[in-house]
Amino acid sequence: MLPKPSPAPDAPIYLVYNAHSGKGQAGDALSAVEQACRAAGRALHSFPVSRDKSPQDQARAAVADARRTGGIVVAAGGDGTINAVAQAVLGSGCAFGVLPQGTFNYFGRNHGIPTETQEAVDVLFSQSPQPVQVGLVNQRVFLVNASMGLYATLLEEREHYKSRYGRSRWMALYAALATLTRRHREWNLRLSSRGQETEVKTLSLFVGNNALQFQHVGVEEGEAVEQGELAGVLIRPRGILSQLGLVLNGFLRQLGRDDDVQTLSFRSMVVEPSRRGGRVGVKVAADGEIERMQMPLTFAVSPEPLWLIKPVSAA
């Protein structure tokens, strides 16, 4: 493990921000960080995300500069923007800061970072880096969750609805209901973990790295995340009405009590088709960002943590 970064009191800030996250609060975040940097005598370097400059490109540029100066890399945006910056920061030796601006903000809230911009800036300038667990799927970072099958489809179609009709929790619920009124592919998978193989038939495999999200839907296996593991959820094939019942159980925080929901925990797990042979491509959602990957998929806890600036008492 790399040593804990110890930024100097005047360490420069390298801010990667997405003006389109949440309710467009990036301007407020930039202004608040500028004021805080002036008061603390710190330099601020901005890396705005745009059509021509992706979060990944801007994050890599920010990390390259921060490594040379002992600076702090900060992500302002939703889970997708935060994920892109975390991917670049992981293993770099840089301290990482977050100004949450998305719809759900599971990562920031799980680690005690306020959703109000000025309060989050206060945390950034007053707290020190703490190690935070990171999940990997085929070496792709996820901070909140990664999934394949039905849940990945839900996320992909949710983004389509939000881009057309606006971003809100109610729109996310409406998109989920619209998606679940159709039948979806069943996956026959072989899961290898802890020296054992298990074959399952499932509509979806969801792997989480965020105890708060599991708590909100009523899955007790999420406690494993606080003990250095990842938690998985499998949904057995079911009819359309039963699929809609999943949403209701999740809304009532009772998903873990559903008879067709199977949970498990692990530090590393390999997922492949039950019938070996040929290359199988699958859409994987990592913190809401869809990417096509080739199976087998390897889900694992990263050997390196993120060094997140957060309140010491937070999870």
Write structural notes for this entry:
The model has no long low-confidence stretch (mean pLDDT 85). The longest helix is centred in the middle third of the chain and has 16 residues, at 150-165. Strand 9 (187-193) and strand 10 (196-202) form a beta hairpin. The strands form 4 sheets. The protein has a 6-stranded antiparallel β-sheet. The chain is globular, with a radius of gyration of 20 Å. With 315 residues, it is α+β, with helices and mostly antiparallel strands. The protein has helices at residues 26-40, 55-69, 79-89, 106-110, 117-126, 150-165, 169-180, 211-217, 240-251; strands at residues 13-18, 44-49, 72-77, 95-100, 129-132, 135-137, 140-142, 145-149, 187-193, 196-202, 204-208, 230-235, 261-266, 268-273, 281-286, 289-294, 297-301, 306-309. The chain folds into 2 domains: 13-126, Rossmann fold (3-Layer(aba) Sandwich); 140-301, Tumour Suppressor Smad4.
List the helices and strands and how they pair.
Elements: E1 13-18, H1 26-40, E2 44-49, H2 55-69, E3 72-77, H3 79-89, E4 95-100, H4 106-110, H5 117-126, E5 129-132, E6 135-137, E7 140-142, E8 145-149, H6 150-165, H7 169-180, E9 187-193, E10 196-202, E11 204-208, H8 211-217, E12 230-235, H9 240-251, E13 261-266, E14 268-273, E15 281-286, E16 289-294, E17 297-301, E18 306-309
Parallel strand pairs: 1-2, 1-3, 3-4
Antiparallel strand pairs: 5-18, 6-7, 6-17, 8-11, 8-15, 9-10, 9-14, 11-12, 12-13, 14-17, 15-16
Helix pairs in contact: 1-5, 2-3, 6-7, 7-9
